[in-house]
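User: Let's play a game. I give you a shape written as tokens, and you guess the letters that built it. Ready? Here's round one.
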């Protein structure tokens, strides 16, 4: 059956998830782009900034505990709404704080709210897409992280130049409320969607059994007892800190190493984050393509993860880059590979656990990834402050690039060991 013959409402849903994720990362990225301005305004050291990033990461981890469980109970529509209201209010409040401590507090609230994005989005994909399309759908909505990171280096310097840093936080924060209107106008789960055809509903569930009729709750201790959950935990714990480094320190890296002026729209950062858009969609497409060719689902996902892990390794060579465009090329490949990794590691959850447990498992894994991201900025801040005092901050970045380069291969080998003979877990076995 031609898929256009029975409608494409599921791709409208994917578009909504993409927009929310884009806004999520615009709001997250603002502080990194304003870092030089805010450092002067509030006399921040690298460690001060690291502590602010750590506050975000710690509350982001806490938020995964809260939202992962809540979204499985109240559903993706209401859960997503609560999440974006909290983070949009927090983004706006950045404009009104007057101290470093104040930034740490509102940054923590932002992290708390933003943590609901991925549990809700991955659950929505599991509800709206068959397994053979999930990685591509995840890759598309996950590319919003890249688009947000592309838009921010253009939008934020422009807002800073014309209005000021306070207005940059306010205007970007308002975007979430615009999305909320669209969400309530167009979103509902398939079984309740009035415009969804029977043919498309059947296609959505064509390669999986709907579990919407199951009742009962799943305890986290039960989820932690299965290897399927630990696959996602490892995949996030070892790689999320790398992505957060790309988000929060790349602007500063280009500024300090190559004298990039962050008060102007940055083509260099746009190229890096544009590459991540390609990586996100290509990574999702690769495993979906292999599945359509007859590969087992898990083998296809793991192959895509391995390709991504190998592609990150060249970032180690950034230390030899003496030209900014060479550094942009090397880092672009690594950042794109991260997003290819992300598209597939999220999809593995919906492949391996029942829909009613998807947000909880994403919450658990997201929490552990955020814990890693909480402590990694402390290491980054310590290394950069040490080498800044020594007059060679570039050497500090080189050490961090080596850590980033090997993180994905280590994660892949552990996942490979965990997934030998692994099969999807059934709802009944978890209750």
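Assistant: Ready! My guess for every position:
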């Amino acid at each position: 059956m031609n898929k256009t013959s029975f409608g494409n409402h599921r791709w409208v849903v994917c578009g909504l998830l993409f927009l929310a994720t884009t806004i999520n990362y615009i709001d997250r990225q603002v502080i990194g782009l304003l870092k030089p301005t805010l450092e002067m305004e509030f006399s921040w050291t690298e460690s001060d900034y690291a502590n602010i990033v750590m506050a975000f990461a710690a509350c982001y981890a806490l938020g995964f505990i809260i939202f992962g469980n809540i979204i499985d109970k109240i559903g993706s529509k209401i859960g997503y709404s609560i999440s974006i209201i909290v983070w949009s209010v927090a983004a706006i409040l950045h404009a009104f704080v007057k101290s470093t401590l104040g930034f740490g507090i509102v940054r923590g609230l932002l992290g708390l709210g933003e943590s609901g994005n991925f549990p809700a989005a991955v659950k929505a994909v599991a509800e709206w897409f068959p397994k053979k399309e999930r990685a591509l759908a995840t890759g598309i909505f996950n590319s919003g992280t890249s688009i947000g990171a592309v838009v921010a280096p253009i939008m934020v310097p422009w807002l800073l130049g014309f209005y000021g840093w306070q207005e940059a936080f306010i205007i970007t924060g308002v975007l979430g409320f615009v999305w909320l209107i669209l969400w309530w106008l167009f979103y509902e789960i398939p079984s309740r969607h009035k415009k969804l055809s029977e043919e498309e509903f059947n296609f959505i569930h064509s390669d999986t059994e709907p579990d919407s009729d199951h009742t009962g709750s799943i305890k986290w201790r039960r989820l932690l007892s299965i290897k399927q959950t630990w696959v996602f935990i490892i995949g996030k714990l070892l790689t999320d800190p790398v992505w957060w480094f790309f988000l929060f320190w790349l602007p500063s890296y280009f500024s300090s190493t190559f004298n990039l002026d962050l008060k102007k729209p940055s083509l260099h950062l746009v190229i890096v984050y544009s590459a991540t858009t390609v990586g996100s969609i290509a990574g999702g497409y690769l495993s979906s393509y292999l599945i359509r060719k007859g590969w087992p689902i898990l083998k296809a996902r793991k192959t895509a993860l391995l390709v991504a892990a190998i592609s990150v390794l060249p970032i180690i060579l950034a230390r030899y880059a003496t030209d900014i465009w060479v550094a942009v090329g090397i880092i672009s490949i690594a950042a794109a590979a991260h997003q290819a990794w992300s598209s597939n590691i999220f999809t593995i959850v919906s492949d391996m656990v029942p829909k009613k447990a998807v947000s909880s498992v994403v919450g658990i894994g997201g929490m552990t990834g955020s814990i890693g991201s909480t402590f990694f900025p402390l290491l980054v801040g310590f290394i950069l402050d040490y080498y800044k005092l020594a007059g060679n901050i570039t050497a500090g970045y080189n050490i961090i690039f080596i850590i980033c380069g090997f993180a994905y291969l280590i994660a892949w080998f552990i996942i490979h060991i965990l997934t030998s003979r692994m099969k999807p877990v059934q709802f009944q076995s978890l209750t």
